[in-house]
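Batch manifest line 350
LIGAND: 3,4-dihydroxyphenylalanine
JOB: complex structure
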Amino acid sequence: MTPEEWKGKLSAIKDSFSSLISEHKADYETLYQRFLGRKGELSLLLRDLKDIAAEERRNLGVLGNAAKQELTAAAEKIKSAIDAHNQRCSSAPAIDITLPGVNFPKGSLHPLTQTMDRISGAFLRLGFSLASGPLVEDDWHCFEALNFPECHPARDMQDTFYVNAKDDRGKDKLLRTQTSTVQIRVMEKQNPPLRVFHPGRVFRNEAVDASHAFAFHQVEGLYVDKNVTMADLKWTVDAFMKDLFGSSVRTRFNPSYFPFVEPGAEVDMSCIFCKGQSEHCPVCKGTGWLELLGSGMVHPNVLKACGHDPEVWSGFAFGCGIERFAMLLYGINDMRMFFENDFRILEQVR
Ligand code: DAH
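JOB STATUS: finished
ARTIFACT:
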């Protein structure tokens, strides 16, 4: 073999060694046997040096030994990586299939969402359909069209938060104080007959305590058709309450004032806790009744504001706070519990 041939073989061996490594095709044992072991390609090549003329042999020997060191180091690096990996695997604890599995906590709907769903179910069963409206409202939909003219004293009870933006009439936009806004939104777009409800968030500038919050929820129902009477309102509200609280509850209407209805009434439900039997009932305070809803016959001014003739159409509306319902349904006595999001409370309502 000429020295040139010998060098060519050496570089071919180095090339195939490094391509095996870069393609991750060989483990330590294979590499060692193929290149470095007693019959390995490199070992045999080094042995061939004896046939080469003495003056060239020394130089080639230096090259050959350097290559041997290089390949040995590379093969050993792979071996130690594999050893470390094996070590890690063997020291990892064995899987004990008899241990109980990991428990993933189950989520649940917030009590207010559950209450809204129950209320929505009751409305849907009565043939009402879901309507929607924005949280950031204008003065017209929140007050003016609902027959609260500017400076009307009934506006005092519904102070709210104003937004730095003007509505179409140049008035500041505001966070809606009541879901009754959706009455106007629907009647402006749709002609009667209509039967809609809307559950949603409302806002008021309130000092927070056990029964007041600056953001809370209401639901509103509206029915407009020909010849709708107070009797329809009474039947519907009674059926609605019976659906939610059971067929033994009774309802009673007390005259009340809301600008957008005439006549207006507050609706009480018989106390579901003491059934009117306890003078000391902490919920109804011994009266036997719980005040739950506002209601009434849609005011002619409201129909007119939405472009409908009050001589042709009549309707009723009723609305209530959802937190109040949820408090009764789940026996919660402080409204703040709904937005403090304490898991100890939320977990009890599933
Ligand atoms: N929007 C009223 C409030 O926030 C509640 C209400 C009263 C709604 C009477 C009605 C109604 O639809 O007829 O106090």
